[in-house]
Amino acid sequence: MRITTSAIIRNYKSNLSTSISNLNLSRTHVMTQRSFNSVAEDPGSAARASQLHRRYYKNQDNLDMLSDVQSRQDGQEDALRQISDVVKTIGKDYNIKVMNSTNQTPEIRKTYATAIRQFQKSMVLSLNSTYEDTYLFAGTDGKNPPFDLSSDGTLTYRGVNVDSSGGSDLSQLKNLSNDNLFVDLGMGLTLNEYDQVDPSSAFNISLPGINAVGFGKDEDGMSNNVIVLAGQLADTLEADTFDSEAYGKLMGKFDNVASSIMNQVTELGVKTEFLTTTKDRLDNNTISLQEQMQKVEGVDMAKALTDYSWDQYAYNAALKIGTSILSPSFIDFMK
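RESULT FIELD:
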């Protein structure tokens, strides 16, 4: 078979192109530290890597959401602790002083009443506190301030009088106290047969303020709301004739209702423990997914460097061979 010079050159150019391609591929593997850089290189691994990446980014979204939820809860806990401190000041300081017979002059009682009313407004401000642009104690309606204290002492929650003792208002307050606002923290969010979120598969970030400070009235007709009771304490102090017996009953009711605030703080503490455990789980998932992605996409650097060195050697050898392809022919010896 006759082998022409053009055939040799054509074959050489094809092999040289292959050497360049192999060198570029091995160089890319070393630089990117990836076993493949396009789906065409390894379709099976690419498909598995795509699934792992989706799980990884979903896990990161859950971690971001958890951090946001924890910050929100910290804001709720700070506000409730402020209210708790105010309640303790009224119950263990002002009330005790008021019941002291030497402090029951009209002027002193008026001074105490003024201070209690300021504390009352302070509690409302704490309950209307926000995190970013959302009201912390508004249940599912985080865009509007939940509490409003009018000049006559009426306190409303989302437009409903918290001192309602029956009827549709009390029913509405009960419904509002059960407001739920669920977020997905990677617990497998699912819906029930009524297309409602399954509480066991999500985290409830809602904390209606009336659950902390109370609502409605008891069987004796006394308010169950600590802010309303504070206003009634001030009213009793400002009366022309001080009724110590009535004040004592209000004081006892005030102390009983105030305990619900610390109960909410304790419940937030339990939720914080749950969030901490969930964060640990998500962090472990992150590490596990990173390891899986490394196994699928990562390259063995020792092998990659060896392959690169070999391809570099092959390419250099091909270049040297190219200088001797056009060997002397019969025409070179013709005179």
